[in-house]
Amino acid sequence: MTAIAKYTNIYTLLVAALGFVVFQSCEKEITVDLPQPDPKVVVEGYIFQGSRPYVLLSRNSGYFAPIDSATLANSIIYDAIVVVSDGTNTDTLTFQPANESPVKYGYVKQNPGVIGQAGKTYTLLVIANGDTVTSTTTIIASPPIDSLEWKVAGVDNDSLGLIWIYFRDQGIDERGYRLMSKRTSSIPGRNDRIFRPNTLLFNQNFYGQNYYFGVGRPDKFGEGLSADKYDQADKKRYRLGDTVKVRLCSIDLPAYYFLNSVKKSMDASDSPFGAPNNVQSNVTNGLGCWIGYGVSEQKIVCFPE
Question: What is the rounded CA–CA span in Å between residue 169 and residue 68?
């Protein structure tokens, strides 16, 4: 055997051995023990101008915990003490199942008590799982909507478009804005059951300025509508002849920071290059939000002007 052949055989054996080691390393299972999160009460609460407060409470779970209907149902807290006050009036909310609540299951007050009013600050007190959770929110008066206009959006269909909202900031106090919409129709299955948050959420940049934004249909339209081919073709736009109610909502800055951080987290989760982001809860000793909404509403029938 020549020297060259000898060294070639040794090199081949070394490469084969290294490949075997790498292969074995890739096959080895690595177990990482992730710490369990500290138990926290999660709050989803809001009070709209002219409406009663609503609160849903749940328990937090681990990042890799299973997410299914049974797990979510078991996380709901049914036996908490929930108190809302506007500084003058105080209401203790009671838990209502889905078939009894005018909104959905959660803590509500059936009889008129504390009602959302612009200019008032609302305190939330929750006692659950041995913890006391508190938060405050202020309902800021929303500027009136100057006008709504439906415009065709896209070249694929001249009967689909966006609704453009025009309004002027009042230049009074710092705030955020959030747009919501609700479609009603005489066509069966073409109604959005509740107001659904639009993706447009922003903080005012200039006091006293005019604003206009295009409002598209929300991403989720309610049960049973996702399989409707007529509805799928709308592609987040409103159809010619739709009747739509648009809400312009003012929120205080802690509420804005919470909602904006949630939006950033959701946007980042859709991309492997998304930057990590922490949700900025506006509740003390818990997680989640307690939000007051100032409301301006206007209705439009979608026809070109």
Answer: 42
For every residue of 43-106, DSSP letters joined together read EEEEEEBTS--EEEEEE---TTS--SHHHHHHHB--S-EEEEE-SS-EEEEEEE-TTT-SSSSE
On whether residue 36 sits in a domain, the answer given is: no
| Half-sphere exposure in the Cβ direction for 274 (13 Å, CA) | 13
The residue among 123, 138, 153 that closes a domain is 138
Q: 108-123: string of b/e by CB count within 10 Å (b at 16+)?
A: bbeeeebbbebebebe
Distance of alpha carbon 126 from alpha carbon 134, whole angstroms: 6
Helix then strand count (H, E) for the chain reads 4, 15
Q: 136-188 pLDDT, tens per residue?
A: 999 999 999 999 999 998 777 788 899 999 999 888 888 899 998 888 765 66
Residues 149 and 122 grouped into a single domain = no
Residue bearing the bigger pLDDT, 262 or 35 = 262
The full length of the chain comes to 305
Q: Stretch 1-5: mean pLDDT, rounded?
A: 44
Torsion angle, CA of 113/75/267/134, rounded to 10 degrees?
40
CB atoms within 10 A of CB 298: 17
